[in-house]
Amino acid sequence: MRFHLPFVVRLRAALKHRDWFGVAIEMLAVVLSVILGLEASQWSARRAEAEYRRQMIAAIDQSLADFEVGGRVAHSRAATALAAFRMESREGRRPAPPILHYRNLDRPPTRAWDAIVTTGVARDLDPEIFFRLARLYSSADSWSEQYQRYNRFSEEQILPYTSETDRFYRNGKLAPIFAAHVERMPGASSNTMCGQRTRIMAIASPLRG
């Protein structure tokens, strides 16, 4: 014990003369620094998340705007082609079947939606918005696949023979295969997408923050 006594004495003396109020202040400052650092980090993360959500909503908004404009254009082109075909038919001519033709048509703009689903942001969407968007983009994919088949027939069976229109008719009427192709013309129903953007974004507006 005597061997350790000088050390104990020095330790007691050091503790006795220690400025405990200063120590408490230093510890409090450290704790507050840690708390403020964590709060700042969480605030920054929340801000980044809110900004990301705004960007996703803006991308969805632009995507829906593309659908809306594209639907209106397709509907207008289809209506114009059908009207011209019917007018020529009434005049006794044999016009080529009307078609809605786009060169190198891309797939529908679904990247923003794919990103929302892949990153898990979709979990934060209102269920009504989520299912309406999912239904809309599913319809867009379906429309695209149908158009690819429609366009293939147009390019192979109609466009090369527009100067030989008699081949499209049987007994003075449009042959059934071509009449059915006219009935499948996309665009006449594309106007159903028009207005979806406004309705969906009215529901989604609170997500913009």
Give the tags:
rod-shaped; 2% strand; 209 residues; two-stranded antiparallel ribbon; mainly alpha; single chain; 2 strands
Describe what this molecule looks like in 3D.
The protein is mainly alpha-helical. The chain has one domain. Helices cover 67% and strands 2% of the residues. It has 6 helices and 2 strands; from the N terminus they run H-H-H-H-E-E-H-H. The protein has helices spanning 5-16, 20-90, 111-119, 127-158, 176-183, 196-204; strands at residues 169-170, 173-174. The protein has a two-stranded antiparallel sheet with strand order 1-2. A hairpin with a 2-residue loop joins strand 1 (169-170) and strand 2 (173-174). The radius of gyration is 35 Å and the shape is rod-shaped. Mean pLDDT is 75; it is low at 190-194.
Q: Helicity range of the residues?
A: 55-70%
Oligomer: single chain
Query: Spans of 5+ residues with little confidence (pLDDT < 50)?
Result: 190-194
Instruction: Look at the structure and give the mean pLDDT.
Output: 75
In total, the number of domains comes to: 1
What's the alpha carbon Rg, rounded to whole Å? 35 Å
Structural class: mainly alpha
- Please give the largest β-sheet: 2 strands, antiparallel
- Report the β-strand fraction as a percent range: under 5%
Provide a count of the helices.
Answer: 6
Q: What is the number of E strands?
A: 2
Give a quick precis of the structure.
The protein is mainly α and 209 residues long.
